[in-house]
Fold:
Amino acid sequence: MTQDIEHQVDQLLLEQGEYLPLEFLLQEGRLLYADYEAWRNGEFDYLDKTLFGDHEHIKQQLTQAADYLQRRGWQAETLTYHSWCNDSTQRLRFSQNNALEQCFHQRYHKPEDQPQMDLFTDAPATNLFNGITQALIDRNPVEARRLLEQLYDTAPDHARLGELEHLVEAAEGLNTPVNDAATDMQMLQQTLLPLAESLLGKNSRNLLIPLWRRLSSALQNQTYQAATPMLHLSYTASQSMDWEAVRHAVEGESHWRSDPVLLLRHAQASEHLHQKPTALLSWFKLCWQFPEQCDALESSNDHELRQQWIAFLELDPELPGQSFPAWLLITKPSLVRQLPEPGSIPEIKCPVSYDILYQLQHERMQSQAEHGSDNAITLRAQLKQQDSELFQHFLNNI
Structure:
């Protein structure tokens, strides 16, 4: 367990250059971003009420992450979160549990990190620049515009005036209707997204997620087109981390199980919603019907599933991607208790080898039958005839 935590922390450090418990909770699927937003908007007092999983276990995870960083010599810095409502001085609390509260409000950075040098030598212009970016992070477009106008007067030749203007205009236009979703999508992806990430850093999503939601509203009734897969609610909702909306949008398409993009989005959304059996079925369907897309398993939010996929790729003898679901039943036989019986869902057709393995493992789990029972012997013979290499892996795992 400790190694898993260290791996997740290392991943965050690689991506962001620092560690924040908020980012860890989001990455681990313990927290929905929508609940974080509601907390920042003052809709409830303590954020930990919305966490998925046992609070004691989560506290243990955060403590292990902090211990790991301290052993590496990283320095802690206390964080304060304020409400996005009118009273921006209101300090928000994460938990009534003092240990959880303390863990959440700690940022870790390298000891050699120094405060970033001012981007510009002119102090008034730099202060205005920093004020504008902070106002955008705090979702305060009125203040951002006020400071931007001052920057126009103070430093009309400021190198990033045009970039700031783009972002402030975007923040001001959040409540305006979308006239052309394709054009707005292009602007968001090619201009606003890189600018926000450059100027606002990891806090860029405070601006970007409302922009994605604006597009989602415009795409509510848009039918999925394989030629333009991003012009669909399932995509824009995934960018705003609204996983329930992603799932509903995918399932609203009658042939979603026949499209690799929709299957992938459904699997990822189900994982974030902690619906593991549903997620696995979508992953399995992707493997069976679109084996060339199997590498998408590397993007799974399920750390254990990713590790299983890596182990599968290292098998000797090798197996084709279509065999991954069946092989998973070999290494994780208890999955038969979570997954539906093959054939019980008409829309999902599985390979014969998967069906045989499911029956074989189900019998073992249900009746604790010996491998030498008549039915088990028959099933094993069928598996050997159907897929000899898969059968060999089954024997190797007994």
Q: What stands out?
A: Strands lie at 75-78, 106-109. The chain has three domains: 2-109, 123-218, 275-396. The chain has 19 helices and two strands. Residues 275-396 form one domain.
